[in-house]
Every structure is written in structure tokens, then in C-alpha cells.
Amino acid sequence: MKRIVLFASGSGSNVENIIRYFHGKRNSVDVAAVLTNKRGSKVLDRCNNLNINGLYFNRNAFYETDCVLDILKALKPDLIILAGFLWKMPKKIIQNFPDKIVNIHPALLPKYGGKGMYGNHVHQAVKDNQETETGITIHYVNESYDEGASIFQAKTIISSDDSVEDIAKKVHTLEYEHFPKVIEKLLSSPETAEKEVPTPPKEG
Ligand code: GAR
Predict the structure, then answer these.
(1) Nearest CA-CA partner of 148 in 85, 101, 95, 181
(2) Whose C-alpha in 1, 33, 88, 129 is 20 to 30 A from the C-alpha of 22?
(3) Is the pLDDT of residue 26 over 90?
């Protein structure tokens, strides 16, 4: 059975969606653990409710020692999934897991990426620039924020009436629909990972 480890910094609604997706597929993929850098975060509550290993780590464990790296080595994941994880991955973890770390970004990279571009900051920038569409990018992680090779993008239409919260909701809908399927596909055949950008649905 394939095994994944998830990283999250926030509410963890994507984490829960991914876990439920694979539960619904008779646990075809084992979610070995969810790791978070936020003590007391909602994602740990979700892990408790779903009977999934939930682990908190601090900066020392991540950047100054091999603690998190050693946990990952012991878990032997086929993929490491960043689902709303906001710290930069240390070089040593990236080097130990080449092409095995995948991030989701709530915009159409290369637009609206980089340091400080996360969550509602991204959606606010998209709104401020009066974009007519936004979306999600699922990509491999390298040593620069949001610059690893793109795996999948999906778009959604937005209007000037949409609030930042409306945009966030549309983006989350795309994330819930596509992220688990892209992970599943990568686990079954990484070389056939899509590079497609589906046409946005017509409004109305
Ligand atoms: C998601 O929208 C994800 O794309 C974004 O954080 C949100 C986490 O939501 N990630 C980034 O902004 C990374 N730069 P969740 O905690 O409800 O899954």
C-alpha cells in the first residue's frame, strides 16, 4: 500500500478532505501522519476525530536538528503532501525526498506566488488586481517558494462582486475536487502526472 505524510499549518480542511477521500476508497492509501508547525491548530483536532497520527513540531525540530527529517525517513512516505503548510521546506528534507514533495498553491502560478503569498493574502492580491479568473496550482517543491515544476492547474471565474471570502471559497472548492485525485494519480503513475489546465466552466 502507498503511504503519504501530510504537512499543514492551518485549519486543515484539505487534510481532512484528503483523508476522507482515501477512507472512501477502502483506505487504498495510508495517511501515515499529519505534521503541523502550529500548536493547538484545528488540524490536530481533525486528526483526533479521524484517528490519524497528528504530530506537532517546532522550529528547532524542523530547521536546527534532524528530528522531522528522521521521522520522515522512518515513515518512508511515497509522497509528502503540503496542504496549507506555510514554512519553507529545509534543503535537507528536499534533498532526501527528490520529486516526492508536492504543494498546493491557491492561485495560478507563476502569478501570486512567493514569500508572504498564502491564504487570503493571495486572494486579496487577486481581487486588488481585478483578475477575472484564479485557480489552484499543484506543483513539486524545490528550494524556492512556489517555483517547483507544475503538475496540475485548474481555474475558476471570479467577478468584481466577489469578496475575498468568495474567492477563497471558490478556490477551496477546486482544491477539494482535484487535490486528492492528483495525489492518487501521482501515486499510481508519477510519470503520467497531468500538465493540463481545464477550461473554466461557463458562468450561469
Ligand atoms: C489552502 O487554500 C492552500 O491552498 C493554501 O492554504 C489553504 C489552507 O487551507 N496554501 C497556501 O497558501 C500555501 N502558500 P486549509 O487549511 O483549510 O486546507
Answers:
(1) 101
(2) 88
(3) no
Going from N- to C-terminal start, the domains of the chain cover: 1-98, 105-136+154-204
Fold topology of 105-136+154-204: Rossmann fold (3.40.50)
Give the orientation angle of helix 13-24 with respect to helix 164-188, to 10 degrees. Answer: 40
With a 6 Å cutoff on the Cβ, whether 118 touches ligand 1 is yes
The model's pTM is 0.92
Q: Does domain 1-98 have CATH number 3.40.50.170?
A: yes
Round to whole Å and give the CA distance between 143 and 147: 8
Q: Quick one: cell of 14?
A: 484539505
**Catalytic residue IDs:** 105
Alpha helices, DSSP H, located in 32-163: 42-50, 59, 67-75, 91-96, 119-128
